[in-house]
Design brief:
Elements lengths: L1 H4 L7 H13 L4 H7 L8 H15 L6 H11 L7 H11 L6 H30 L4 H17 L9 H17 L12 H7 L7 E6 L5 H16 L2 E6 L4 H13 L3 H6 L4 H15 L2 E5 L6 H9 L4 E7 L16 H19 L3 E6 L3 H4 L18 H4 L2 E7 H4 L8 E9 L5 E8 L4 E10 L2
Helix pairs in contact: 2-4, 2-6, 2-7, 4-5, 7-8, 8-15, 11-12, 12-14, 15-16
């Protein structure tokens, strides 16, 4: 018991003082420290208040040194005539050199993270012994707490607008120096990327079509392109196809070998060589596939949190997913799908990656006038809140699917029905069914 009472929270007051002293000695250090630490990372309340003061001055581009900080502390009411001036002088005297400020900040951040882990462990332990919730619910809550610590945020954190603006300007500078025309991951389809500004982090993108239109193929093409160009991990959850079938489709698309031949194994020497090269290229990527048909959104989110370099999540497809809640299979299906799409949007924001979810369309498009089979938002099956939760809704339409004498053979219209980043419209792509692939069709583009 005495050992427990004497146990101290992880801390390094020396590192905290060195960080603050460095910022007072050399204001050029402030920008680096602001990007690494938050006020609550400091253990000593006096150090928290001093850091908050410097933080505020930095946001307003005010000059930072011992005199100006002292004056600001007076304005904010964090000033004591006897101790504050002496403490600031002490901080400057004991700091060895401002050149090592990043190392000092790393120590402070490490101690703060250890305190966070300790707090999370206590909360998890309390939840376990309270007897509230099932084991899976407690596990999900525990994983969220740990994931929040890994990201350096709390679930209920309110971030200062000044911090957000700094990040925004950093992102703008990064984009300005880049040769890319859009901020998100490249889908591989230039006209589509220009229309939706790529696949953006935190976005829920619904890719909807009637069966046979090629929505799984388009998702696989996007996934492969993101994996190859961004060098990030891509997760594909299939509720319909096996891992082997997904691999065959990727091989066909990458090698331009007819998928029927990959199914039968009747390949020429040149085709064996082509799929060997394609397999080697695909093996260099970090594509993860799951064909478990019972994965809930909560379980999917937990699996994705364990991937350190995640760049994209693809789900095939929405109507085959089940609710995470008890009795989900017997609930009103519209309510279940609404719950799933809301959870997917939350997952996209928590993981900070684009989530592409495939969706079936109802038969309404086929029941309309024969000259008007193009899908609309109202055709989303069991729509519920799909349209509301999605940032982007893409719908596929092939005229030759309905009209045998169509002039646009193997041409797919990608109808951008909802676009939170710009205007809706339509982009045309070439459909290569034997290779399970789409390609750019630069000469065709329709504006809505």
């Amino acid at each position: 018991m005495d050992e427990l009472l004497n146990r101290q929270a992880p801390q390094s007051l020396e590192a905290e003082q060195a960080v603050l002293g460095s910022m007072l000695i050399d204001s050029r250090c402030v920008g680096d420290v602001i990007g690494m630490l938050k006020p609550e990372d400091f253990f000593l309340r006096q150090n928290q208040e001093l850091f908050e003061t410097i933080y505020s001055m930095f946001n307003y581009a005010e000059p930072i040194d011992a005199v100006t900080v002292l004056n600001k502390l007076k304005e904010l009411g964090h000033f004591d005539e006897q101790t504050t001036p002496k403490y600031l002088m002490q901080l400057m005297e004991i700091t060895p050199t401002a050149a090592n400020v990043k190392q000092y900040a790393a120590i402070v951040r490490d101690k703060a993270l250890l305190r966070g882990i300790s707090t999370a462990a206590d909360e998890i332990n309390e939840t376990v012994y309270s007897g509230v919730g099932t084991a899976s619910e407690v596990l999900e809550a525990a994983e969220k707490k740990i994931y929040a610590l890994r990201r350096g945020t709390a679930d209920d954190a309110l971030e200062r607008i000044g911090t957000v603006l700094i990040k925004t300007f950093d992102r703008l500078n990064e984009l300005a120096k880049s040769d890319r025309d859009f901020p998100g991951h490249a889908s591989g389809f230039k006209d589509l990327d220009r229309r939706i500004h790529g696949l953006n982090d935190g976005n829920l993108i619904i890719l909807a079509a009637r069966p046979g239109m090629g929505k799984t193929t388009m998702a696989l093409n996007m996934m492969a392109n993101v994996a190859k160009t961004s060098h990030k991990t891509v997760a594909f959850f299939s509720y319909e196809m096996s891992k082997e079938e997904l691999a065959r489709r990727l091989l066909s698309c990458e090698s331009f070998v007819d998928n029927n031949k990959l199914t039968t194994g009747k390949l020429s020497k040149e085709e064996w060589s082509a799929i060997g090269v394609a397999a080697s290229a695909l093996s260099q990527t970090d594509i993860r596939v799951s064909d478990l048909g019972t994965v809930t959104v909560a379980e999917m989110s937990a699996l994705c949190r364990r991937l350190d370099n995640l760049g994209l999540v693809v789900i095939d497809y929405l109507q085959l997913m089940t609710s995470a809640g008890p009795g989900g299979s017997s609930e009103n299906r519209v309510q279940v799908v609404s719950e799933i799409t809301r959870s997917l949007k939350v997952m996209a924001k928590e993981l900070n990656v684009p989530v592409v979810c495939l969706s079936q369309l109802s038969r309404r498009a086929e029941q309309r006038d024969k000259n008007d089979h193009r899908p609309q938002l109202s055709d989303l099956r069991e729509s519920g809140s799909i349209e509301q939760d999605a940032d982007i809704v893409l719908m596929l339409y092939r005229d030759d699917y309905y009209n045998a004498d169509s002039e646009e053979k193997n041409i797919v219209e990608v109808i951008v029905s909802k676009n939170r980043h710009g205007e809706p419209g339509t982009v045309k792509l070439q459909w290569l069914p034997e290779f399970f692939a789409f390609s750019n069709l630069e000469s065709h583009r329709v504006e809505q």
